[in-house]
Design goal:
By secondary structure, this protein is α/β, with parallel strands linked by helices. Helices cover about 45% and strands about 15% of the residues. The chain has a 9-stranded mixed β-sheet, with helices on both faces. The chain has a 3-stranded antiparallel β-sheet with strand order 10-12-11. Helix 1 crosses helix 6 and helix 10 crosses helix 11. The longest helix is centred in the middle third of the chain and has 16 residues.
């Protein structure tokens, strides 16, 4: 057992020490093990360490709980990745105060860098359930790893949708310890996610699903993702906290529109008013995220054409046509036609040459 890992697990078990405070402790004492040997009065000299935190560090140092925690994780097939270790997700290192350690059940792969968070309300409508499953399945089929929180409602449907896709992958970031699956009815889903992705938690193995855990959990969902898709959310939904974290972390926020009569869509509509991207299908997401451009180029773009785009494409042939000419031919507003042409060009279905457009061959070459 690594003494350094045991020290980091001990500090994490206090629930009060993240990467920022750990760095201050190391600056003061040299390393985490030395910090655990320090007295309460010495600990309190460190910026950010008050009486409660100092007592918690001293108590966990005396208890020996960290060694038992590591052994229990080993027996359960759960790995513990320390901050900065090779298995620790690089995407989280840029967070203001990333977890000191992460518990992992399953595997993180290189392809998981291309991830999207799919979240929403626990008390969702049938519409929200259908759309969460649809988006997750389509994104997973395209090669995007779906990240969610294993909660009831939208999260559950997102994981299930991703698992329906061939070779689909999904990550579940939990607000409890990995030995306390919550909600309990998702135990089978937890096992399936661990087989086709990973279950992840910053909380000790036996930590329960305390309400204060979930906002912290949400920052990891957005941190692991290139963007966040809000499928359905009320005005005070926890999903809006994830959107806040995403905005703070520089991630894109996408929203699925719903009925104006549905309270469960008001949160998403509010985000759209504030600048979140309205999306109708998975391709809308890929077009907005440069990191997903390789997946966009390899996708069957023809399967994702909207009725408007299909109308515009029907007026494009081998002879280049201007946007104005296409608008005149379709009797559609030029601004709408221009936006459709740009989307079709991004998908490789038309080729832009000097402001004019012509069709490409099925392999993307000019006809």
């Amino acid at each position: 057992m690594s003494a350094d890992l045991e020290a980091l697990v001990a500090l994490n078990m206090t629930g009060l020490v993240g990467a920022v405070l750990h760095r201050r402790l190391v600056e003061r004492f040299g390393d985490a093990r030395a910090a655990l040997r320090a007295g309460v009065s010495e600990l309190r000299r460190v910026q950010g360490v008050g009486e409660i935190t100092a007592a918690a560090i001293a108590n966990v140092a005396r208890s020996g709980d960290a060694g038992r925690e590591i052994e229990k994780a080993r027996r359960s097939g759960i790995r513990i990745a320390a901050h900065g270790a090779p298995e620790y997700p690089a995407a989280l290192l840029s967070l203001h105060d990333p977890p000191l350690v992460l518990y992992l059940k399953g595997d993180l792969l290189e392809r998981d860098h291309l991830s999207l968070g799919v979240v929403g309300s626990r008390r969702c409508t049938p519409y929200g359930e259908r759309q969460a499953a649809r988006f997750a399945a389509d994104l997973a089929e395209l090669g995007v790893t779906v990240v969610s929180g294993l909660a009831r409602g939208i999260d559950t449907r997102a994981h299930q949708g991703a698992l329906r896709a061939r070779n689909g992958r999904t990550l579940a970031v939990m607000g409890s310890g990995l030995s306390r699956v919550y909600p309990p009815e998702n135990a089978k889903l937890f096992a399936a996610v661990s087989e086709r992705g990973a279950a992840i938690s910053e909380f000790p193995l036996d930590a329960g699903p305390q309400p204060e855990n979930f906002p912290r959990r949400n920052r990891l969902i957005s941190g692991l993702s290139l963007g966040i898709l809000i499928v359905e959310a009320a005005e005070k939904s926890g999903a809006l906290i994830t959107a806040d974290w995403a905005a703070e972390q520089g991630r894109e926020v996408f929203c699925l529109p719903g009925s104006v009569e549905s309270p469960m869509s008001r949160g998403a509509h509010l985000l759209i008013k504030q600048g979140a991207k309205l999306v109708e299908n998975a391709m809308d997401v890929l077009e907005e995220l440069p990191a997903l451009a390789p997946l966009l180029r390899s996708a069957d773009a023809g399967a994702w054409i909207s009725p408007l785009e299909r109308t515009v494409l029907a007026k494009i042939d081998r002879v280049p046509r201007s946007c104005e000419s296409v608008a005149a031919a379709t009797k559609l507003p030029e601004c709408s036609v221009g936006a459709a042409l740009q989307r079709l060009a991004a998908r490789g279905l038309v080729l832009e040459e000097g402001g004019a457009y012509r069709k490409t061959a099925p392999d993307g070459r000019p006809t």
